[in-house]
Structure prediction request, 389 residues.
Amino acid sequence: MIRFCTAMYERLTMGNRAGSLASMTRPDRELLIGLNLISQLTPKRTQRLFARFESFRGIWDAPSSAFTALFGSRVLGEAIASARSETAIDEEMAKAAEKDVRIVTLMDPDYPPTLREIDDPPMALYVRGILPIDSPRALAIVGTRRGTRYGKMIAGRFASQLALKHCTVVSGLAAGIDTAAHQGALDVGGLTVAVMGCGIDYPYPKANQPLYQQIVEHGTVLSEYPMGSRPAKWTFPQRNRILSGLSRGVVVIQAPERSGALITARCALEQGREVFAVPGNINTLTSAGSNRLIKQGATLADSVDDILDEFPDLRLDVGPADPENAPKEPKLGEKESFVYELIGLEPIHMDDIIARADLSPTEASHILLLLQLENLVEEVEGGRFMRKD
Prediction:
């Protein structure tokens, strides 16, 4: 398939420059905003339009019969033709300006270059926060909305460690793994990008509105959907190509056999991006999809080093994203360190700690209390302990 950034982009932009003065009443970027408002123009149909027409103006002025011939449906052709509205363009731009939203189109220099390279790039992006996005240092972290405590801990840890390498963490603002990834980057003063599956002025899910605002202030929130668009079943799978398109690689953490994270992984492979998967418990459904990715050839990632091995340039010792927020190593004695190493992400009983560390019950209780005061571990059910997030 022809990458948009090569033949089509050059041909369409040249075609618009060659148009008559009469056809230049609207800048190309505004025509793209208008075309993006037409719900019938899915990414794949837009790709066919761009391959067929010589300019954006040509698409805007084409008769319905041209769309009918291209898509083989008179109903669809007439729907696309009748949906073109210059009034709608003006209204959309006014709505965006009112809510401090920037619209970046394929024609604009701040449009992410790696996203322009994919086969079906968004015609327009609605953006709040920081531009441009540093795509060469961007990595996506995705996973299930029903992430376990372990999965969310890993997502947060990976995101923090990548952010400390000045990588931009890309995710989808969903509950579970996405939320943990965004928060992990923010916790160390790093950059994160949230790609929404609805209009940028419709923060979703509602529980993540505070996180949404944090990202607006310290990162980037973006969407391809027009102002006011509500989330739907099809919007999230469609936006997943943007998650991978913005990134050099995609890290999948806890994905069931049927999940949006696996769609993102498939998009990444189609776009020539690297795919990483964190192995999970073979007895849990939440890890079935990510474990299968490893079987199919995805790079197993049980630490951030596995990701950085694929991208040596990201290993640059640039220091923490925010030194004040960088995680501080706890000051523990020899026995405390040994006990801390025994306690992992799965609960371990105090009796096992006593036996394996060769401690008296009094010593073990004292050390465990110290580790809890340091906010390193917590007691869960039945005298068991596990590391904190």
